[in-house]
Amino acid sequence: MLDCLAQLAAAARSHALILVLTVRAEHDPLDAAWRATSQGASLTTIDLGPLDDADAHELAACHRQVDPAVAATCIRRAEGNPLFLDQLLRGAEAGADELPGTLQSIVLARMDRFCTADRQALQAAAVLGQRFGPAAQRHLIEDPAYACERLVQEAMARPEGEDYLFMHALIHEAVYASLLKSRRQNLHRRAAAWYEGRDPALMAEHLDAAGDPGAPEAYAAAARHEAAHFRGERALRLVERAQRLDSGDACRHTLACLHGELALGVCRALQSSAR
Q1: Nearest Cα residue to 107 out of 89, 87, 91
Q2: Fewer CB atoms < 10 Å away: N or C end of the chain?
Q3: Cα Rg of the chain, angstroms
Q4: Greatest CA separation found in the chain?
Q5: In which band, very low, low, confident or very high, does the pLDDT at 26 lie, cut at 50, 70 and 90?
Q6: Alpha helices for the chain (secondary structure H)
Q7: Residues 199, 180 contacting (CB under 8 angstroms)
Q8: What residues form DSSP beta bridges with 160?
Q9: How would DSSP label each residue in 181-228?
Q10: Closest by alpha carbon to 123, among 181, 75, 76?
């Protein structure tokens, strides 16, 4: 295919033709050998950025059966990626709310090119969230020397300060959805262990995601921590999340008392700020 295209590019030199090719930046095959085969055909490279808001709405307008509010949600989730937007809109037309299988297949096909270590690192990153720290990722995969170069080269993640960020929220969603339940829960437990003593709220959230029976008490501890730092509303939300989980009578009583204390504290703070 590439040789054929190079010969076609060479032939286009003496004809009124424009040959348009698209390629992913991370797998650009137009190297020196290809250029030599094309016999010096004039080549202009254009880096295509994400769709802007107007273009995204124009593409969405082609899917007339999709409710405008649903289309707006698809546009937000696609983040300017035309392929992702098209597939989300097609899924919406079919009445599906979950991630379309086509997008899942695209991401999984890219993951299949990774070695086992990089694939496991990507899955661990997905458990940590769309933004993840390399130290926590190394803890989850038990590899203190792991570096994210391959994930960056394959445009799955990009550096963001000292951390890394998934290139797209839907990539993060697809990788997370690919995890078997048992492995996902195990990684969440390891993440909870990492955040113990570092971030009580994240520790509780990971125990919750792991289905760990200690999650309600962890939420209560995190709520007390937030309240001690004068973040009453956040503390209240943590307790309310804990109250939705299964727990023993003693724990439910403790949570109810804590909820009352925090609600009263938030109410007093609002009254004070209104004066």
Answers
A1: 87
A2: C
A3: 25
A4: 84
A5: low
A6: 2-12, 32-37, 53-60, 68-78, 82-93, 101-111, 116-128, 134-141, 149-153, 169-177, 181-195, 200-209, 215-228, 232-243, 249-274
A7: no
A8: 163
A9: HHHHHHHHHHHHHHHTTT-HHHHHHHHHHTT-TTHHHHHHHHHHHHHH
A10: 181
Residue with tokens 């007339």: 64
Tens-place pLDDT, residues 3-22: 888 888 888 888 888 888 88
As a residue count, the chain comes to 275
Task: Give CA–CA dist 92/75, Å, rounded.
Answer: 12
CA terminus-to-terminus distance, the chain: 74
Cα–Cα dist 138/191, whole Å: 10
- Provide the 10 A C-beta neighbour count for residue 241: 18
Strand partners, 163: 160
> Which residue has better confidence, 27 or 139?
139
Q: Which helix (H) or strand (E) holds 160?
A: strand 157-160
> With bands split at pLDDT 50, 70 and 90, how would you rate the model's confidence at 248?
confident
**Positive or negative: CA dihedral 172, 177, 178, 181:** positive
Reported confidence tier of residue 211, pLDDT bands at 50, 70, 90: very high
Other beta carbons within 10 Å of 183? 14
- Cβ contacts of 159 within 8 Å, gap of 6 or more: 152, 165
- What pLDDT score does 23 carry? 83
| CA distance linking residue 136 with residue 275, whole number of Å | 44
Instruction: Give the predicted TM-score (pTM) of the model.
Output: 0.79
Interstrand relation of 157-160 and 163-166 (parallel, antiparallel or unpaired): antiparallel
